[in-house]
Amino acid sequence: MPVYEVTEQDREKLREPRGETVKGEELIEKLREKDYSRIIAVGDRVSHDIEESDIDADLKVIDGKTQREGLEKRGKDDLTSERTFNAENPAGKITGEAMEAVRKASALRCQTKVVIDGEEDLLGLPAVLFAPKDSVIAYGLWKKGAVLMEASEQNKNFCREILDLERSEHLIIGGSWDFFHSGHRYMLLSAIERGKKIDIGVSSDEMLREKLGTKPRHSFDERRENVEAFLKDHGLEEFRTIELNGIYGNSLEEGESLIITPETEENGRKINSKRKELGREKLEIHVLKKLEAENGDIISSTRIRKEEIDENGLLQT
Prior knowledge:
The protein is an alpha/beta fold. 33% of the residues lie in helices and 23% in strands. Helix 4 crosses helix 7. The mean pLDDT is 93.
């Protein structure tokens, strides 16, 4: 996985608050003033302050370190969460492992926590990138207090510039998107990270019926609307949804890169083989492992349909 290094020039930019600066009880008062869709806390102090209020955060990113007097007795396990992700991250960098942990946690719709071995300071950058646009990221800034940074398109672009992300001009991803769940959100967040223009294939009712052997519970229109609503919520403008009646969709004529899962690697090979026959450049293939449930198995529509897990991978039986 790549490691993102922050330059000294970038550090100077990050020393300036990217939002309103607040101190003490003002943090909670300001959070109460606006009905944010998600509250994300980066840092132990803001995480504890928010949890001790009547609000709490949807996602907390911590490393177990703080210079707040009295808080040193509170450990990483004192902050509540329904699911926890762990990663290593040294000072001044963002490891691919830490980026991945924030992406996974951001895909869930339950209370989550990312625990960092190292330093969490820079992880507000991917937290902003993966947050819905009407979210707020609360983070501590040395000697200035807490900063409330909204996940606006301007701030998302700022984070992309600091991270210097390599993004495909035209990325393609496909699926059934049935029982729209956190695994789907995780894949779409990966597409948002990797692509500028994104085409999303959605299996037709007939294609999904053939796969399931029964009538789908959710229609094509419902599944497409779920995908589109998620992308719009995250501020994405350049995307199309395309009805799939087979594995190819528009991938033989268009695109620069393709996201697939280990289960569909063979389809990726077939697509590139066909493109070669047509005299077109091969698509760059990104194989993305599926998001795991709390027991280590994957989150899937099949498991949700059987009521083994819920949409966040929490066990139901």
